[in-house]
Amino acid sequence: MDPNHFHYQQLMFNFMQNYQNPNPQNSQIPPMPPFSTQVPPFSTQPFSTQVPPFSTQVPPFSTQVGTEKEERVVVKKKSREHFTRDEDILLIQSWLNVSKDPIVGVDQKAERFWVRVAANYNEYRGQSREKLKGQLKCRWHRINSLVQNFVGCYKQAVNGKKSGTSENDIMAAANAFFAQDQGTTFNLEYAWRLLKDEPK
User: Fold this and answer.
1) Given phi > 0 = left and psi -120 to 50 = alpha, else beta, which region is 183?
2) How far apart are CA 27 and CA 29, in angstroms?
3) Within 100-188, where are the H helices?
4) Is 0.90 surpassed by the pTM of this model?
5) What is the pLDDT of residues 175-197, one digit of tens each?
């Protein structure tokens, strides 16, 4: 008999015996190990907790941009010039001188008009600071707007005056009307007195 054939028959016999009586002690074929339900060790560590350290650090240059902008704003505010009372009066007088010039008058082009106002202002400024025509033009429009508003308030106070009302009473009423309309006090009375008798 072929030894291989005999060995094959012996394996088949043992398999049938184990199939009919699945006792590990009588079996020559080791039982199959049970299916493992344990999770591999590496999966118990959450991946999300491993964050690269650089992701929590803010680049240093991002905090300096705002600081530079703030410094620029502060510098602009500090360098802004305000007109004094004497400078306002000189501006008004220069505007009146140029506008009343019979040769050019107020009908001249705006650019040329303010060039002449600036030349007149800087000629008589004395110890005051030199001003550009853009600065003078901007300040004039501000003065003119506030004075025009006060003129309306003054007329309202005059129309509502009673017998025996003094000029001080009228001015007090006009200031009260201005504060009510504009939400602030009128601090350009000197400008109003220079312009109140001039044409609008």
Assistant:
1) left
2) 5
3) 110-123, 133-159, 167-182
4) no
5) 999 999 999 999 999 999 999 88
